[in-house]
Design a protein that fits this description.
Layout: H1 20-27, E1 31-36, E2 40-48, E3 56-62, E4 67-71, E5 76-79, E6 82-88, E7 91-97, E8 102-107, E9 115-120, E10 138-140, E11 162-169, E12 174-177, E13 183-193, E14 196-205, H2 206-215, E15 221-235, E16 239-253
Parallel strand pairs: 14-16
Antiparallel strand pairs: 1-2, 2-3, 3-4, 4-5, 6-7, 7-8, 8-9, 9-10, 11-13, 11-15, 12-13, 13-14, 15-16
Length: about 260
């Protein structure tokens, strides 16, 4: 995923958070009306890249349910309790919050693979909810992954349920290049539950793999947001077995010192 520097335009507030025409203008696209069996009346916005054959993302809004959903070849985000949708430095800013947590998502017109997410577990609104948040608040999503195995994304385009894991890295991400020339970084994540520890295998793809290998290190405290992927692997003694991996869609780092 490419993260773009926003143009320095003033933040423009939208009076009605569900001003569909205004949202279409910000994204530089058209709003298509549709009916959802569960969410009711909705609107679909297609976010296409400037380059020829660029990836396409879709934003769907359901005003009656205060729901926003975004899908691209890699990213699947569902936001409930949406409070505001406005323009911030040229990006579309979606702010959702309930009494326990909140999330702010920035979508960039013309680049469906560029996205920024700010997460908070507190009900209070943090001071930095614009496109220049503190480094430890930023969650960045990667570029599209390298040749995911069959079954990574269901045929209906809906991604598996998102998981969020907080723990320490078992080793510095190991970077490799596939036969197709794609980058993949692999690491392990130790999640402590009282006296027990669960170990997870985490994979980063594309540019995010390069970034992970260069910036993350053994013992670092991180929060991984991604999707579980199951695949069959052969063992020398016991035959086939199911292997679970976490495809990292975003990562949040902490300033907590590393543990040797």
């Amino acid at each position: 995923m490419s993260e773009r520097e926003p143009s320095h335009l003033p933040c423009e507030e939208v009076g009605d958070p569900w001003d569909i025409q205004r949202i279409a203008e910000i994204l530089g696209t058209e709003a298509v009306s549709e009916e959802h069996s569960q969410y009711g009346q909705g609107y679909r916005f297609t976010v296409a890249g400037h380059a020829e054959a660029a990836p396409i993302g879709q934003l769907k809004l359901y005003p009656d349910r205060l729901i926003a959903r975004y899908r691209s070849p890699l990213i699947g985000l569902d936001l409930t309790h949406v409070e505001t949708i406005d323009q911030d430095h040229g990006a579309l800013r979606i702010h959702a919050r309930d009494e326990r947590a909140q999330a702010v998502v920035f979508l960039f017109p013309g680049d469906p693979q560029a996205i920024r997410v700010i997460l908070s577990s507190e009900g209070q609104v943090p001071e930095a909810l614009s496109l220049s948040p503190a480094p430890d608040q930023i969650v960045e999503t990667p570029v599209a992954p390298a040749a995911e195995p069959a079954g990574a994304i269901p045929e209906d385009g809906e991604l598996a349920p998102r998981v969020m894991l907080t723990g320490r890295l078992g080793h510095t991400p190991r970077l490799r290049t596939t036969r197709q020339g794609k980058l993949i970084a692999r690491t392990s994540l130790a999640v402590h539950r009282g006296e027990e520890t669960d170990w997870h295998t985490v994979l980063f793809h594309g540019e995010r793999a390069q970034q992970a290998a260069e910036t993350l290190s053994k013992g670092q405290l991180v929060t991984i947001i991604g999707y579980r992927h199951l695949r069959e692997a052969m063992t020398r003694q016991n035959g086939p077995r199911t292997v679970e991996e976490i495809y990292a869609a975003s990562i949040r780092t902490s300033s907590t010192p590393n543990v040797p």
